[in-house]
Amino acid sequence: MFGASMDWAGWIERMGEPAVLALCGLAAGLGFGFFAQRSRFCLRAAVIEFWHGKFGDKLTVWLLAFGAAVVGVQLLIVTGGLDVSTARQLSARGSLSGAIVGGLIFGVGMVMTRGCASRLLVLSANGNLRALLSGLVFAVAAQASLAGVLAPLRLAISSWWVVDGGPSRSLLAQLGVGPWDGLVFATVWLITALFFAYHSGWAFWKWAGGIGTGLMVALAWWFTYAVMSNSFEPVQIQGLTFSGPSSDWLMRVLAEPDGPWGFGLGLMPGVFLGSLVGALVGGDWKLEGFGGGYTMPRYIVGAIFMGFGSMLAGGCAVGAGMTGGAIFAVTAWLTLGGMWVGGGVADYLLDRPREQRADAPTAPVAAASAAAP
Predict the structure, then answer these.
(1) Under 8 Å between Cβ of 170 and 328
(2) Which residues contact 96 (CB under 8 A, 6 or more apart)?
């Protein structure tokens, strides 16, 4: 329906599926990078605001992005423009233990590195060297978890509690409802996010950038579904994710490229370029190193946690949380919940004590205050 006016078959015939998928990834990445940069989209920041009891800009932006993603995907499904039944998050066997434990570990890591995987890529394009180093360590840890020294541990945890593909992995199917019910839920979620945006001030990039970020998740699903529907070769429908593509790019840099290009390989440079454009437009580009009380070991350990957690959970904050959450995959919602809990615990144990020490008056000041009338 939505792709009827686009000559997908012609493009595929002229360029081949891998090239078309890479261009689709590049286009979706450009939009995601630009909107995420301008809106300051960040799950870690939203989690901290939530656990601090502050419903401010950062939480509002994430709610808007997630609501727009779910609305966009479910709207495509009910209008016949998208079929996600063959998506890996729904059709393949999944691990509930991997989703829960991986989400918790990822949540801890994103607080330690001050950003999830997508946020690190966005910040790297803005000149943040801390994010660049953390992103490289994240990619190494993801590859090690996929097929390296951490793979046995990942497989062991994943085997604790597994679920078959099909209805067992669909939250809507488990609840006995359908796509229209999912669309209604998503609409309520988006309206709630708009309510928060209204009461915290209608800054343009807060609501426009948040919604735009979420719509890129829906666009990614539609792109790959359109290619799959018009291809004579088997093509796996997929959405936005950063753990797998980060690992793929790492191996292409370190070793001889193996295999054709695809959606994920086009996505990464797209996000980087989109964020760079956003930073230049907004005057946000500047070189930043380590400082502000955050030490290099903290970033490195946090990036390792995120890399392992993302591969254990089957995706990062965007890949599992938003992309999988938008199609109501059970494992995605468990992962997302784990990230919120893990992030809250890490903030409580690691950052709040330091904030309390920073806010506490020194002994002479405290004594003077007590003696004052």
Answers:
(1) yes
(2) 161, 162, 163, 330, 331, 334
